[in-house]
Design goal:
CATH class of the largest domain: Alpha Beta
Number of domains: 2
CATH topology of the largest domain: Alpha-Beta Plaits
Helix content: 25-40%
Number of strands: 8
Number of helices: 5
Order of helices and strands: HEEEHEHEEHEEH
Strand content: 25-35%
């Protein structure tokens, strides 16, 4: 997503796109469900419900895992224990794990942020005059603090 946000920003898209994921492991039924008049291709089952509820807890940009999923992938993917939550339909709290960025994602020199009245697109590797950029950012901070 970082690479896509960078590409889209360079093409003029001002709003950055973020996703969040919740992953769970288990059995589910996948296929067309419904009637002859209205079929819907979907996945149903306990693992799907859990994944949807975990995804609802995640922040933009996060990938959260159920504990069982974490135990299956912990040797291949860097993760950290994130939080314990009470998921709807569960008797006990569920421990969630957050997928950590890879080394190349940690060093990404692109910063994009947007909210009403504020858009920031900062690609540090492309700045030729960093002193000037710092000066401009300091002016903007002074204006924000003044208000």
């Amino acid at each position: 997503m970082t690479k896509l946000r960078e590409k889209w920003a360079s093409e003029g898209f001002t709003k950055s796109f973020h996703i969040r994921m919740g992953l769970s492991t288990g059995y589910c039924n996948v296929g067309n469900f419904g009637s002859q008049e209205r079929l819907h291709y979907t996945a149903l089952g306990n693992a799907m419900n859990e994944a949807a509820r975990i995804q609802a807890v995640a922040k933009a940009g996060d990938i959260l895992l159920a504990e069982e999923t974490y135990l299956l992938i912990r040797q291949q993917v860097r993760c950290a224990q994130d939080q314990q939550v009470q998921l709807k339909g569960r008797a006990n709290q569920t421990t969630l794990y957050r997928v950590l960025p890879t080394d190349d994602e940690d060093s990404t020199p692109l910063i994009t942020r947007q909210q009403e009245g504020f858009t920031l697109y900062l690609k540090t590797d492309d700045i030729t005059d960093k002193n000037s950029a710092v000066s401009e950012l300091e002016k903007a901070l002074a204006l924000l603090k003044k208000d």
